């Protein structure tokens, strides 16, 4: 039997709901595929990320697809993480949608394919990250979303790997950002980049831990362009993916990482300096406790503090996606301007 959302889609469609041009679906248990999905949002190829299981969309994801009737659905993952039955369910929910799979023999190959799709022009900056760390992947994606890089590539600990090396050789970027410390990306990778693209300037974006690394990436931005911070626990991959997608869908938002019970010194210093109009917390209190909510209230007494959290990761992702659609309006992607966030507020 079809999910409830599939049986209701004709009714929902007749209500005149606005349609997304594109969404991307990833398996919530695959960090590399979540990163690829979010990078597609950051580069303007999709509007939001939704989560699925190996062989089922889940009620929350099904409901979003049924209601919003996207014209395109991208699948970030091979048939081991998103089986062909997923394509069947999408066809039942949104018959007019085209379904395209970002394929490759492994996560690095799929991410390289996503990077090649990102732009018809030669990018000047590539962000390279070890996909074993979702916090680092989220930081790399945020660099793309805020106009500091054009595409993300995955590498191993001590070598680029064939997929990433091929893109570096093809693009010959002016700058390469290595996201993460030497335990994630060994200095040997810098030498490898130097051999492939000798003119590239290699810079490392790294801090003492996930929160300080993300803060370092955010610190580079023009403060006047940030109206809202989206905050996730820096050690929760699923929530990081949702936060990165939600922030990427808004021109006036940036992402920060937090510990479970406090934002931490690095994030707090940025929030104090920028004084945003709002804070969006991603995830249930077991990933970001009420202490973080109260901390935000004390720090920004006049700001709006919101939490996006569902009973499961799939529900949380669906809630964030629905709000992103409400907030959207036509976006002019920062990647096309090559600048940091503008001062106009989204619909937050």
Core attributes:
alpha/beta; 12 strands; disordered N terminus; Cobalt-precorrin-4 Transmethylase, domain 1; 4-stranded parallel β-sheet; 14 helices; 3 domains; 348 residues; globular
CATH class group of the largest domain = Alpha Beta
Q: What is the fold-level CATH name, i.e. the topology of the largest domain?
A: Dna Topoisomerase Vi A Subunit, Chain: A, domain 2
The tally of beta strands, per DSSP, is: 12
Question: Which architecture of the largest domain does the CATH hierarchy give at level 2?
Answer: 3-Layer(aba) Sandwich
* Quaternary structure classification: single chain
In spatial order, strands of the major sheet run: 2-1-3-4
**Could you say how many structural domains there are in total?**
3
Give the ordered list of helices and strands: HEHEHEHEHEHEHEHEHEHEHEHEHH
Percent in strands: 15-25%
The outline comes out as globular
What is the alpha-carbon Rg in Å? 19 Å
From the helix content, strand content and strand pairing, which structural class follows?
Answer: alpha/beta
Q: Low-confidence stretches at least 5 residues in length (pLDDT < 50)? A: 1-17, 329-348
List the helices and strands and how they pair.
Blueprint (H helix, E strand, L loop, with lengths): L3 H11 L7 E6 L3 H12 L6 E4 L6 H10 L3 E5 L7 H10 L4 E5 L4 H11 L7 E6 L3 H12 L5 E5 L6 H10 L3 E5 L8 H9 L4 E5 L4 H10 L8 E6 L3 H12 L4 E6 L6 H10 L3 E5 L7 H10 L4 E5 L4 H16 L5 H4 L11
Parallel strand pairs: 1-2, 1-3, 3-4, 5-6, 5-7, 7-8, 9-10, 9-11, 11-12
Helix pairs in contact: 1-3, 2-5, 2-6, 2-10, 3-13, 5-7, 6-9, 6-10, 9-11, 10-13
